[in-house]
Predict the 3D structure of the following.
Amino acid sequence: MLFGAHVSIAGGLPNAPLNAAKIGCEVFQMFSRSPQGGWVAPLDEKIAAEFKRNCAEAGQQEWYIHTPYFINFASSNNRIRYGSATVIRQELERGSVLGATYVMTHLGSYAALGEEKGFPQLIEGLGEALKGYKGSTQFLIEIAAGAGAVIGDTFEELAKIIHHPKLKKYNIGICYDTQHAFAAGYDVRTPKAAKATLDAFDATVGLDRLKMSHCNDSKIELGGHKDRHEHIGQGAIGLAGFKNLFADKRLKNVNFILETEHDQVVADLGALKKLRKKT
C-alpha cells in the first residue's frame, strides 16, 4: 500500500514525478492534458523517456492519469458524446507510452437523456473507446458521489457497467474514492462498517476490480451526495475511517492518491503514512 497525490504537469509532463517527490509521494496522479479541454501537448518518445527517467530518479513506483472533466458518455450533445470516447482512447494510448498503470474517468450524467436512453449510449461509447485497444494502461471507472443524475454512485451500477456483456472482455477496473463513496452512503467509520462496505463491494463488483483509490476526507455527511473533499482527519470520515480501510488486508496492494487542497497535502501524506505504520 503506497501513498501519493495528484500533482501538476506545469512546464511539461516530465515535471510531474519531480513535483511528486518534492511533497513525499511514493506514487502519483496527474492530468496528461488540460482538464478543461483545448490544446493537447504533444507526446513523443523523447518526452516519454525523460518522464520515465524522472520517475525512476524521483523514486516513484507507479503513476496514474485522470481524464479531463468534460467526459460525458450520456450527453445529448454528439460532440461531447463521441469526443468522450475519443479522449478516453487517446489517454489510454498516451498512458501506455508514459508507462502509466491506470487511466481513470468519471462517466458523466444521465441528466439530459435519462437512464433509459443514456445507459445504452454509455455502453456503446465505452465499447467504442476500448475496441481494439492493445496498450498496457488499464482503464478504470471512478465511483461518483451521487449528485443529481451522475453515473456510477452505487456498487450495483458500477457492476452493471463493467460486467455488461458488451464490456466484460475489457477487464475494466474501479477507482474507489473514499469521499465519493462516503457521500454515496458507504460507511467506513467503524471496523464493522468498513468490513460491511468492502464485503458489499466484493459481492457486487468484486474486490479484484478495485485497483486504486483516491484518498480524501469528506466535508459532507454520510449519504450527502456531494463531491466535497476535506483534509485527512478533518472531515466526517475521520482518521478512524482511514485506519479501518488500511487495516483490511484485502486492500494491502491498493495504492491511495490524495486529491486534497495543496496547502496541506504534505501533512495529509504524513498522516496517511503514520496510519499505515499502525495497521
Notes: The chain is about 40% helix and 15% strand. The chain has one domain: 3-278. The domain at 3-278 is CATH 3.20.20.150 (TIM Barrel).
